[in-house]
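Weekly modeling sync, notes
Attendees: AB, CL, MP (scribe)

Item 1: holo prediction request
CL wants a bound-state model with zinc ion before deciding which constructs to order. AB pointed out that an apo prediction alone won't tell us much about the pocket. Agreed to run with the ligand included and paste results into these notes for async review.

Input as submitted:
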Amino acid sequence: MKIRFVGAAGEVTGSCYCVDCDGYRFLVDCGIHQGANEDERNREPLPFGPGELDAVFLTHAHMDHSGRIPYLVRQGFEGPIWTTPATARLVEILWHDSVHLMKEEAEWRSRKALRKGLPPIEPLYDESDVDGALKLLRPVEWEARTSASDGVVFSLHDAGHILGSSSVAFELREGGGTTRIVFSGDLGQQFPAVDRAPSVIREADYVLIESTYGDRLHKDDQATREEFRAVILTALKDRGKVLIPSFVVDRAQRLLFELSLMQIEGILPEVPIFFDSPMGVRATELYRAYGDTLSEEVRRHAASGVDLFSPRGFRNVLTSEDSQQLNDVPFGIVIAGSGMCTGGRIVHHLKHGAWNPKNHIVFVGYQAYGTLGRRIVDGETELRIAGEDVVLKAQVHTIGGFSAHGDRDDLLAWAGNFTTNPLFFVTHGEPEASQALSVSLQENGMRGIVPSAGQEFLIDPDVPVKRVSAEAAAPRSRARAALKDIELLLKRLRGDEKVLSDAEEVMHLLFSARTLLEAAARKKPGL
Ligand code: ZN
């Protein structure tokens, strides 16, 4: 039996793992890579033909887990896609939305390409591929032990991350033996506000565990709530706009829930609150429809008849004309996607509002390397937004505790539920986070290793795990890692007073580095 780490190894997006078991080949997740200039990577062919693939198991609806499934279908995949009923409803919303975004982007890039005499850019997939993918969805309830084929039995378990999110537990039969592998999917916190805590799974030989926050601790939920409240109230005092880039599935519903609670407790008066996302509005309807799968806190308030997803002063913004009219609205809270500012309506709100020192930008989620959101969080003030240079003067706040992901201790608590001493493959994290979680697992008496993208392992519970192909990471991801190292070094050097006081000593080294970087820049296509 083999497992291959196609994506989300050494990074947080592009989740995709491939398992071969006795001639049956399946994927767990098939997500898009998110971040600057990832389009090319999303178009890279997968390391197998879609016809060689028997099934896909989908942990949850987020695009970095589900977003390349319609692309698989476009290439000819026809097998079942196993997931929960709520995820099946959510991906319908997300995939249709992504077709729309991809089409817009392809048109924009095609215009640029045509001016250079290059062929037009096709979107990754279209409506018909999405419709094809939706027909392949096979919803199953949490905890239901289901047979996908002769040797492949699986069950989905609440991962507490977003509506419908799951871990997948497999019992795989090959050569007379059974191997138990659990894929954590994205894991929620142990005490989430909107979702329920991740289910306890006790038995596995191997576990793939995500590590987005494997090296960090969140503030506890009450502290996060207080921090959010303080930021909102301070920001509103400036009578400017409070722009909240947010995932419009789960995070936005959490924010609406928090704003409602503030009003119920009399802390927040009625203020204009705009939810600028047609997709988010539809997702909110699903949160109501599947309300019985949510946290006790949510169910308790819902039982008393309060609609926690509609604070007073709240308005759904549906059309893009209405969204643009918000440019002229001087005061209020605007929640819009995308969460990392890589697209969506938040981009035009930032373009029109980031210059104004009365405005506030409140980040409430993870910002992946290379995204506009990450650049703002990292303190860049000269930004290029939607083709325009913008100087950032709005005040920036980051609230980390709202994460739909567990932190290091949440991950360790989930991992600690296993009673069978499994080997943990630590995935879905930037390299430092994955390494840190692996070390923490070992400090807590567990076994962890960190695979790299493209690596393949032979797995058999009776023999030590063995790497069968040690493919070096693709040149592209190695180049990306080098660029990141250079940026980090530069940041460190800039912050080090001694560099300039020792100018004579380091000057020649810096000049050499500049010469090398200039040479690298000349290699860039188009320069
Ligand atoms: Zn997720």
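Recorded for review: DSSP finds 17 helices and 23 strands in the chain.
Action items: CL to compare against the apo run; MP to circulate these notes.
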